[in-house]
Amino acid sequence: MNFFEILKDLALTVFHSVYHILWGDLITIPLPGGSSLGLSLLILILIPSGIYFTLRTRFLPFRMFPEMVKLTVETKDASQKGAISGLQTLFLSTATRVGMGNLVGVVAAISAGGAGAVFWMWVIALLGSSTAFTEATLAQLYKEKDPLYGGYRGGPAYYIHHFFLSGKEKPAAGQTVSGERQSASSGVSAGHNAQKRRRHSVIAVLFALSGLICWCGISQVIGNSVSSAFENAFSIPPIYTTAILVIIAAVIVLRKNATVKVLDIMVPVMAVCYFVITLFIIVKNAGQLPAIFQRIFMEAFGLRQAVAGGIGAVIMNGAKRGLFSNEAGSGSAPCAAAAADVSHPAKEGLLQALGVFIDTLVICSCSAMIMLLAPAELTDGLAGMDLLQTAMEYHMGEFGVIFIAAILWLFSFSTFIGILFYARSNVAYLFGDNWLSQTLYKVLALVMLFIGGLAAYTFVWDLGDIGVGLMTVFNMIVLIPLAPKAMEALGDYERKKKGAK
Asked: Are 368 and 106 in contact (CB under 8 A)?
């Protein structure tokens, strides 16, 4: 065995060890009948913290849902040159949420965990909505001026940095907890200090690196899923599909500020088209819905799986794909939330909380229904895009296969554009404000997109899972101790709303 083979084996050993620590059974709970429930580190972090944030916000996902919807009709433009509005950041985060996770992620969850995994995706979304509010609000409080792209930047790397190195929990730039903007000189100073500050808070650096690894993994998932779908639909060899996808992506992402403009148009169109088509399928098969919901709840609580010892797989796959889909707690969406130019930080938190609802409770549910409403004898034994496209072919014939291929291309493309926007702030945190590092990471992501078109399906998912898992761990280390700042902002926002009435 030569040196490179030894290095490869070592890398794979480390890879699988980290994956097992994050997603393997850290704690095993015995169940009646000789089966057991395995709980991973991520489940032990996300579910209790989601409950904690839900209680701290006084059940925000339920009591403030009307306010979340109301904020989407506020069309106020950003006041800073290069900045984007709160609604635009919702489109941006929705581009990555209502993307790969909603199609490929739901397929993976049901393939591995059965119909019951859908229920646990719903649970993760309801709990994750409060988590999403907290991290997005903190991103607003600790954002900085962006000297390269204009507007603002920030995210977990920035509020983690300030938590560990500033010596006090003080908003860094942009806004105070009450939502009032700091002076222009304060914002410029914060941007200038970004160059001279000690940028090596260990946890912040680890988060930023994990994010860049995660988004490279997602880039590979995108290439793999799109090439697979087009091969099934049109018999196009993966190399051609992937090459075209990479070329089009490069034209957009290598331009300075094309990202948000493209997503402003793409996200509403693709989401509405997908929702309308799937709603038609659901209405057409409305008579089967009671049986489908019965199956989801029965399998979710292991009434069938517990006997075979498979309930752990149901919960784990639902939670894993739920996190991958709605991103709550992982720290991805706050990278977009920090860029918003809004009048109060809690507004952005509420918009991002709404994004979790849109993602999982609406679009993911539609995807699940497409598969579960198809006869079991057609889909048994299938996984990945084969499962989804077979189900769509049953519902809508050849058009269904073509539609899924086309919508997957749009979802995937928007996800890729969105994650590269996320990467901006992390690249800047690690390497400073320079175009070279920004461009090199974009090129790396494009290379991963190309490689993913030819890569093994399981491996690229595992790479993304490791990245998002590490991001979540590092993000949650600081999210809970900083949560009082977000709660203070929420209280201030609600007091001002009452005073204005």
From this structure: yes
CA distance 89 to 268: 13
The H-assigned helical ranges of 327-397 are 334-337, 345-356, 365-372, 376-379, 384-396
pLDDT at residue 163 tops 50: yes
| CA 53 to chain CA centroid, nearest Å | 18
Please name which of 296, 243, 266, 279 lies closest in space to residue 117, comparing C-alpha atoms. Answer: 296
Please check the confidence at residue 494 and state whether its pLDDT lies above 80.
Answer: yes
pLDDT band (50, 70, 90) for residue 389: confident
| Strand 36-39 relative to strand 144-145, pairing | unpaired
CB-based contact 98:275 (threshold 8 Å): no
> Which residues are paired to 152 by β-bridges?
145
CA 381, CA 29: separation in Å to the nearest integer? 29
**Strands (E) located in 49-208:** 144-145, 152-153
pTM, 2 dp:
0.83
How many H helices and E strands in the chain? 24, 4
Task: Determine how many CB atoms are found less than 10 A away from the CB of residue 126.
Answer: 18
Q: What Cα–Cα distance (Å) separates residue 88 from each residue in 102, 192, 399? A: 20, 26, 32
Nearby residues of 90 by Cβ (< 8 Å), 6 or more positions away: 72, 351, 352, 354, 355
CA distances to 13, 76, 291 from 69, in Å: 47, 15, 31
The residues that bridge with 181 in the sheet, in sequence order, are 175
Q: Which H or E run contains 67?
A: helix 65-71
In the numeric block, the tokens 């175009």 are attached to 435
Contacts of 432 (CB under 8 A, 6+ apart): 195, 199
| Ramachandran quadrant class, 329 (left: phi over 0; alpha: psi -120 to 50; beta: rest) | left
Q: Is 28 helix (H, G, I), strand (E, B) or coil?
A: strand
More confident residue, 352 or 315: 352
